[in-house]
Amino acid sequence: MGSLYSFSCEKCDYYAEVSGGEDAGFEAATQTMVCDGCCALVDVLVGKRKGPEQDFDPIPPRCPNCRGDNVTPWESRLCPKCGSTMAEGSLTVLWD
Ligand SMILES: [Zn+2]
Ligand SMILES: [Zn+2]
Questions:
Q1: Separation of alpha carbons 51 and 54, rounded Å
Q2: For 20-74, what is each residue's pLDDT tens digit?
Q3: For a Cys staple, 9 with which of 14, 22, 43, 77, CB 3.0–4.6 Å?
């Protein structure tokens, strides 16, 4: 089961609903990344499961907004717009 959290920047009001790291649902694995193309936090599809008992098949990461491949894992917890630390908000969505 995957889960999304709301992250918000107090400095520039940027807001994103992402998992905040590696996440996996039943069929898909995602990772929260920063896209350099559109300067946004995005959950990128990084793996897909072929069958119930199988491992995830890796997928080359691409931004779901702009389809660019200039994405890097979001480990800094910094706002992609202004570089301030982002505050982790509440759990918003459970997906599967
Ligand atoms: Zn910001
Ligand atoms: Zn993008």
A1: 5
A2: 999 998 899 999 999 999 999 999 999 999 888 888 999 999 999 999 999 999 9
A3: 14
Residue type, 38: C
pTM comes to 0.89
Per the domain annotation, does 33 fall within a domain?
A: yes
Task: Please report which residue ranges of 2-83 form alpha helices under DSSP H.
Answer: none
Range of the domain at 24: 2-85
Query: What is the distance in A from the centroid of ligand 2 to the CA of 36?
Result: 6
Q: Are 18 and 7 in contact (CB under 8 A)?
A: yes
Residue 42 within a domain: yes
**In angstroms, what is the span from residue 70 Cα to ligand 2's centroid?**
8
Q: Is residue 96 part of a domain?
A: no
